[in-house]
Amino acid sequence: MDKLENLSHYLGRDVYIKRDDLTPLTMGGNKLRKLEYLIADAL
After folding, report:
1. What is the DSSP string of the chain?
2. Residues 6+ apart with CB under 8 A from 23
3. Contact residues for 8 (Cβ-Cβ < 8 A; gap 6+)
4. Lesser CB count within 10 Å: N end or C end of the chain?
5. What are the domain boundaries of the chain?
6. How far apart are CA 42 and CA 36, in angstroms?
7. What is the pTM for the complete model shown?
8. What is the C-alpha to C-alpha distance for residues 12 and 27, in angstroms, rounded to an integer?
9. pLDDT in tens, 6-31
10. What SUPFAM superfamilies does the record point to (predicted)?
11. How far apart are CA 21 and CA 43, in angstroms?
């Protein structure tokens, strides 16, 4: 997670972004993130 300093300052609150390019393939990516929501809906 990286803090977006300029946007955080502009909005007056902390804004963070997940950097998928820095996350290992086994622990990130859009397909895994989508799967998390599908599993949550199924349960």
Report:
1. -EE-HHHHHHHTS--EE--GGGS-GGG-SHHHHHHHHHHHHH-
2. 29
3. 14, 15
4. C
5. 2-42
6. 10
7. 0.51
8. 31
9. 999 999 999 999 887 776 666 666 77
10. Tryptophan synthase beta subunit-like PLP-dependent enzymes
11. 30
